[in-house]
Amino acid sequence: MTQHLLNPAGLLLVVALLAAPTAALAGLRRPSWAGIVGASMAGLAFGLAAWGWRAGGDRIDVAWAPTWDLRLSFALDGLAVLYALLATGIGALVLIYASRYVPLHLEHQHRPHTDEIRFHAFLLLFMGGMVGLVMAQDLVLIFVFWDLTAIASYYLIGFDRHEAEARASALMAMLVTGISAVCLLIGAMLLYADYGTFALPELFARAESSPSVTTAGALMAIAALAKSAQAPLHFWLPRAMAAPTPVSAYLHSAAMVAAGVFLLSRLYPLLARSDLLLDGLLTIGFLSMAVGGILALTREELKQVLAYSTISQYGYVVVMLGLGGTYGTAGAAFYVVAHALAKSALFLTAGAVTEATGEKRLAALGGLWRRMPLLAAASGAAAAGLAALPLTVGFFKDELFFVAALKRGPVFAALALVGAALSLAYVGRFWIGIFLGRSRAEAQPIPTALVAPVVVLGVLVIAGGIVVEPVTDLAASAGAVTYGSPTPIHPAYHLDARPENLLAVGAWALGAFLLVARPIWVGVALAVARLGERIGPARGYRLLLGGLNRFSDRIHAIEVRDLRSRVATVLVPAAVLVGAGVLVTPTRDQFLVGGVRGADLPLLLVLLLTAIAGVATCVPRDHLSMALVLSSVGYCLAVVYAFSGAPDVALVAVLIETIFALLFLGVLALLPRQVLRYESFRAVGTRRGLRDAFVATITGGFAFVVVWGVLSRPSPQQSVIVEQADLTPAAHGKDIVTVILADFRGLDTMGEITVIAIALVGLAGLLQRGRLR
Amino acid sequence: MTTILTQTIARLLLPPTFMVAVAVMVKGYADTGDGFSAGVIAGLGVLLQYVAFGYRVAERLITIRTAARSLVAGLTLALLVSFVPLLRGDPILTHAPAPNAHVIHLGSLELITAVLFDVGVFLIVFGFAVGAIGMVARAIDRSAP
Q1: What is the pLDDT of residue A772?
Q2: Which of A156, A615, B83, B92 is the most buried (most CB within 10 A)?
Q3: Of A743, A234, A270, A240, nearest to A537 (Cα)?
Q4: pLDDT tens profile A12-23
Q5: Does B45 touch chain A (CB under 8 A)?
């Protein structure tokens, strides 16, 4: 265990987290530097991750808040290496692409090119969040980085912030993944309650299969599945296509959505304690494969096709994790790599094609291979990879998938076959629709930086299909972390009639049939899509959000109607809560009536005066008199404090009352005369008057009851006061109030004076329109 | 209100008001009063000038900008006193010298960091009072025909 940061793991973490601020600073000097510097930082982080992998992984464990049992504990294990390599490597390529794409994008929209800095900074923040997430060995850290990625994604999806659609999509992604993230926190808390630790290695070692572990696992799985856009929480992902294309590419392949299946892989040892959970994963995975696959076949917009395909492809990964075992766990890791390479390439292709032609829809595109042969070839390799054709790394992902499914049974193998066929059909439709057939759109030449990353990714997809060992090693070491014991997998080309080969051939045949026979099934698929829109979860989300909005609007409308209602919205809930508290606690012998001695007479008189002044404020008359009567209540109370042996409080009360009375008069002078006159002499309806009286009575009544109850007994706080009085001389003081304010409870004072400072800024905003001069 | 008599008294009262304020603050640890009260007393002294002379004359005495500076200075001072102990590994707001250790006396005033904290409170409250008064007075002055 290493305590310092000078090892691959520490350096990777530092570089990844510093990337965003570094790029932003560089961008401040010149906006175009942000992308270059950011890509270099991502490349550096990629190098460090690769070094860490070669060095056999490493860990950091530093105390963070020891009294709360929180440690900064990170490990660069096999699983972390795999996802860190993806996040940084694809991150670097996406940044290179974005450094050309984003300026063009901003130009189209007539926005200042300084917005580019924001883009790169948030993308790198995303990357830093991912790297931190995959290395974290502690549930609290996982939660922190989990939400960091959600925040970064919010700003990236809503990058075109002048468009209402982009803002709504960003909000939807934020709400779905952010609210489900709370499930992760609750799950972590449940585990902490049982085992007293957030550290994952300890939890894995000690957790047994119990109902509470199952509940915690289910909650955490919900968070992961929502992030991975699995049905029925998948609807945010297609909406998130409002983001600029590089964001989508990154989100779908190496970040956000990948974070979900990463979390499932990381927590697999806990999830595997319960067969119920694994079966649940299987169900949701197959459901997502079906929903995503069928809907992908019906979409027309390029990025929508890819979005639904992502839902379906991560469905595969979830299914593999649900199947478990050697092939399931290592296969899931392998699948993530193959999918990330191919999917990011296809997204970047979609962006480049739209940039060249200005078209977003499949129907408007076609025959582009003549104009952009290199892009066609590179993205063809990526598409072949996703469709699991031989000589691509994707072939092996399906081989592993079939092996895992066959181990469970023939039904699962059949479902796997249908899923694979669907993916071949929609990927084929995407690529053929763009590049083959009749030319329908004019294409402008596009910059090299928009093609080069696709070429790199396409080459990697092919290279992985020829020399598969590096990917296998990576996936096997990641699978070993997930499974808890070594997971040797041996994907290879076998030219014989073994079951997985037959399944692959069957999938190709079925996929090709689906491609050709589109007119036969397209009506059914469209009907399914429409049904989903009618009764799907997206509708539930809209209804829920709309209902909450209307509820809050109604409350707000009541609150802001006039000053009386505003006061009532504060007082009534307070009175109801306090009253409920009083009613449910036993009150026998809690309310004492003390005697009156001769020495109390002055105090009684002052209290009487206070009461009279209090009643007098309720008598309607002009505002000036009311303000003066109100301040006389304050002065009377100051005298009460003085009689009760609290000279410090009395002094402050007198001073505050003076300054506030004068400020009150000053503000009254600011109000127009006719408003004051109208407010003073407007007839208040009987119903309103009764309501106000009722609110005032119950609030005052319960406040009275509570104060009476508190004064009736010596509170446990008394001992604290005695102790503080004893300590005062040791704190070099003679006046206990000042010592409490400046020393014993100094932090409270610090908070309060900060509030004073903020209040002045607020006042300046109200009176000076923001200028403090 | 703006008679010669009130103006003369207001001007004459200003130095004693500040003196009382400072006294209330530095004697806070030994007697009634603290930085908060002191800040309000000093603020009231300034308020008296506004009442007697009106916004335009009183504003020459102390500007809102000065009040804001006082507030920022006070907040900085209080934050420093609160958080510098962290650098030494102590909890927030650990005052020096330590309990029962030797302290330099200046009359009844004992020189400890808690007094500095109280000075910060004084500056903030004074800044708030003067800033709020000044801004309201200016708004009245503007809205007057």
Answers
A1: 35
A2: A156
A3: A234
A4: 999 999 999 999
A5: no
